[in-house]
Design a protein that fits this description.
The chain is mainly alpha-helical. About 75% of the residues lie in helices and about 0% in strands. The protein contains 29 helices and no strands. Helix 11 runs parallel beside helix 13, helix 16 runs antiparallel to helix 17 and helix 22 runs antiparallel to helix 23. The longest helix has 18 residues. About 0% of the residues have low confidence.
Length: about 500
């Protein structure tokens, strides 16, 4: 999650050496807010000095989180002096904190109209535009703030945030670099640069930046959470869980940290703890689509496909653009044998993420199971263009062979892109005529590999027209493969196709 730095409320001091004690206390920037409110209340009179007192009392209310009362004070200041720039600015800031972005922008517009060099107003208006998703206008406002004050670190940070939201990670990083150069203790800039590196897949550099942000601010909850996500991406699940634990320790109501920890537990195979964490995330934030998706993943791994699908349904209802939920629901539907629905879900996932090699691969597998061999071959080729995956190559060979094409030369060429000759490379050699079925089975070292070997050997016999041998091998795959395996469902479908 992106964290922003804000330029805080700005007041005009209302005290002079000749003022009474109440007036001096009203103008205090360090006094307790409740005392400031009392002092300003005593001091306010229907004269010009009252304008500044209304402003300062508004700032005190704002410091206490009483935003509506603060806005009422700014209203009074503006009623007495319609050209009082600081009152418009601070009223804008109060509306922005309340989440009323359009009214905040209108206030900043007024402040800038009265003072075209009001740097803070440009910056905070840019933040408001970013929160509205108007990224180009946000960048323009940060540009203006930087032009007026080239040493304003938060303006570079704000522009970096907007570039990051646009997916322009390199430009974002350049702005965070500048912000850090100007303010080496700018923890938010380190954190957000970490997010940009993480988006680029540079997890070690992201972790280094999160480390720095945490060193500067040991209570930086989001930095612990996002470092946990980065560790999870590296497969360092225990370190990820430790970071999620720390984030939760600091903020027990931080829903996404429970979801992140649940994902890590799911990856470790601790499915019940994963579900418990996702339950907690959902209880804290019933609109957290990712938490429903994470719980769906755990249910799917447990083989509870209907419960998984229910959770994916909810995730998609909350976020219709959550590609991962369509992808995972597609797999659950495929595992249930609902191939048409699975194909539709993979299609939707690919509309949202056209470069998702895994979704192209599973779309091809689902089409293969459904008997659309030409369509499967085309989808699997798209998958391989994104990610040279050995299983996609095997299914593409089978799809092309079943479609009546000569597939050996293509498999030979495709296999050159593989970086490893570990399993299932032995199946590739079987299909190229360089290994026997017995030698292929012998190359399978684990129970999962042995079940896969039976499936691919069964498919080899289907291609060769050896129906009896095909049925024997495919039945072995059905008997030994976990029901959530791609090969299990494909073997079940193939056995039905082989029936007279």
């Amino acid at each position: 999650m992106l964290k922003r730095a804000a330029i805080a409320a700005i007041a005009l001091a209302c005290a002079t050496g000749a003022l009474a004690d109440a007036e001096t206390e009203c103008g205090s920037k360090s006094g307790p807010p409740d005392q400031v409110i009392v002092a300003c209340s005593q001091f306010i009179k229907p004269d010009v000095r009252a304008v500044r007192a209304y402003l300062n009392r508004g700032l005190a209310y704002q410091a206490q989180g009483e935003l509506d009362r603060a806005i009422a004070e700014y209203d009074k200041a503006i009623a007495l002096d319609p050209k009082y720039v600081a009152a418009y600015y601070n009223r804008g800031l109060a509306y922005q904190i309340k989440g009323d972005l359009d009214r905040a922008i209108a206030e900043y517009d007024k402040a800038i109209g009265l003072d075209p060099k009001y740097v803070a107003a440009y910056y905070n208006r840019g933040v408001a535009y970013q929160d509205k998703g108007e990224l180009d206008r946000a960048i323009a406002d940060c540009d203006k703030a930087i032009a007026l004050d080239p040493k304003l670190a938060v303006a570079y940070g704000g522009r970096g945030n907007a570039y990051q939201a646009k997916g322009e990670q390199d430009r974002a990083i350049a702005d965070y670099d500048k912000a850090i150069d100007l303010d080496p203790k700018f923890a938010v800039a380190y954190h957000n640069r970490g997010l940009a590196y993480q988006a680029k897949g540079e997890l070690d550099r992201a972790i280094t930046d999160y480390d720095k942000a945490i060193a500067l601010d040991p209570k930086y909850v989001a930095a612990y959470h996002n470092r946990g996500v980065a560790y999870q991406g590296k497969g360092e699940l225990d370190r990820a869980i430790t970071d999620f634990d720390k984030a939760i320790d600091l903020d027990p109501k931080f829903a996404v940290a429970y979801g992140g920890r649940g994902n890590a537990y799911e990856a470790k195979g601790d499915l019940d703890r994963a579900i418990t964490d996702c339950d907690k995330a959902i209880a804290l934030d019933p609109k957290d689509a990712a938490a429903y998706g994470g719980r769906g993943n755990a249910y799917q791994t447990k083989g509870e496909l209907d419960r998984a699908i229910t959770d994916y349904d909810k995730a998609i209802a909350l976020d219709p653009k959550l590609a991962a939920a369509y992808h995972k629901r597609g797999y659950a539907l495929y595992s249930k044998g609902e191939l048409d629905r699975a194909i539709a879900d993979y299609g939707k996932a690919l509309e949202l993420e056209p470069k998702n090699g895994g979704a192209w691969r599973m779309l091809g597998v689902a089409r293969y199971a459904a008997g659309d061999f030409k369509g499967a071959a085309a989808d699997l080729l798209r998958s391989m263009e994104i990610d040279a995956d050995a299983y996609a190559m095997l299914f593409r060979f089978l799809a092309r062979s079943r479609a009546g094409e000569s597939a050996e030369a293509g498999l030979e060429a495709d296999a050159r892109w593989l970086k490893s000759k570990e399993w299932p490379f032995a199946v590739t050699e079987l299909y190229l005529g360089r290994r026997s079925t017995a030698a292929t089975l012998a190359a399978a070292a684990t129970p999962d590999q042995k079940c896969e070997a039976q499936f691919y050997i069964g498919q080899w016999h289907v291609v060769k027209g050896n129906r009896g041998d095909a049925e024997t091998a495919l039945q072995a795959a059905v008997d030994t493969c976990p029901k959530t395996f791609v090969e299990y469902r494909a073997a079940v479908v193939e056995l039905k196709r082989l029936q007279p």
